[in-house]
Structures are given as C-alpha cells and as structure tokens.
Amino acid sequence: GQWCTRVPLIFFGTVEWHLPDRCLRQFGREQCISLEVPDSQRAFHGRDGRQGTRDWPTKLKNFIEIWENRQLQDIVTPNQVGRMGYHDPYLDRYRQTSVRYMTPEGAADGALADGIERIKDMTTGRTELGNEDVSFIR
After folding, report:
1. Exposed e or buried b for every residue in 18-51, given b needs 16+ CB within 10 A?
2. Per-residue pLDDT at 138
3. Nearest CA-CA partner of 114 in 100, 124, 103, 130
4. Torsions phi, psi of 17, nearest 5?
5. Which of 98, 91, 87, 96 is nearest to 120 (CA)?
6. Integer distance in angstroms from the first to the last C-alpha of the chain?
7. pLDDT score at 43
8. Of 70, 75, 72, nearest to 23 (Cα)?
9. Would you list the DSSP string of the chain?
10. How far apart are CA 6 and CA 16, in angstroms?
11. Cβ neighbours of residue 27 closer than 8 Å, sequence gap 6 or more
12. Distance, CA of 9 to CA of 25 (rounded, Å)
C-alpha cells in the first residue's frame, strides 16, 4: 500500500519526508533498521509560497522526481510473527540510540527484564564467562 512508501511530501516550498520504515511494528510488519533521514532542504521550511512568485517545480526538482517514481520506494518487510527477540538487530540498535523509558517505573521494569535476559545469555553461552561464574548464576 501507499502507506509504506518512503517519499517526500511536498507543499509549495516545504518538503517533509514520509518515513514508514520507522513504525512498521505498529502495522504488524517486521521492523527493520531505519535508513538515514534524507535531506529535505531545511532552507525551504517556514516559507509557504505566498511571498511572491516561486518556481517550486525547478527548486524542488529532485524531490518531485522521487515522488513521481514512488513505486520504487516501497518498504517491503514480512509480517511480524511472535515477539521480537531481545537480540534482534533493530532492538540492539534501539537500545544504543534511544531513550527507552518515560517513567521511573518503566525504567525499573525494563532494567529487571534486561537483567533476566543477560542472565539467560550468560547461562546459555551467549556471553563469555568462567565456569565458576556460570555455576554461581545457575
């Protein structure tokens, strides 16, 4: 569908990107690591085209070409089946780059879940430990 097309939305001199690859999970799709946000020529922001004649088709030619070829910009991922694993590449990157918790209670719950997952990793060989450490954890 068109909702999963990564394209510039153009209104006079304003260009904003529609970035569905950032919210695929909301639509039951497998979440991929988002691509970088393309430059939308921020110099155009704040202008609405009413301040005299503007040649927007010429100034925004590159964005218009992307829009006209939008069928080539679809984000295609399979449907999400089950829960995303703790070590899914998307979640690993998310934990490195995002603010994960909005409240102290959420942070406490998340820290507990992370701790349990780390202990599981240690006892299943995903994390290198000495034998005495693994025996202690078990």
Report:
1. bebbbebeeeebebeebeeeeebeeebeeeeeee
2. 58
3. 100
4. -90, 135
5. 87
6. 49
7. 46
8. 75
9. -GGGB-EEEEETTEEEEE-GGGSGGGGTBPPPPPPPPPP--GGGTT--S-SS---HHHHTHHHHHHHHTGGGGB---PBP-SPPPTT-HHHHHHHHHS---SSHHHHHHHHHHHHHHHHHHHHTTSS---HHHHHHH-
10. 11
11. 3, 4
12. 22
Six-digit token pair at 81? 């089946």
Per-residue pLDDT, 55:
79
Structure tokens at 9: 């939305």
Confirm whether pTM is higher than 0.70: no
Q: What pLDDT, on a 0 to 100 scale, did the predictor assign at position 126?
A: 63
State how far the Cα of 73 lies from the Cα of 90, in Å rounded to an integer: 20
Token pair of 84 as six digits = 């995303």
Amino acid symbol at 1: G
Residue 136 CA to residue 129 CA, distance in Å, equals 11
Q: Across the 138 residues of the chain, what is the mean pLDDT of every consecutive 10-residue run?
A: 81 83 86 78 52 72 89 85 83 83 87 84 67 59
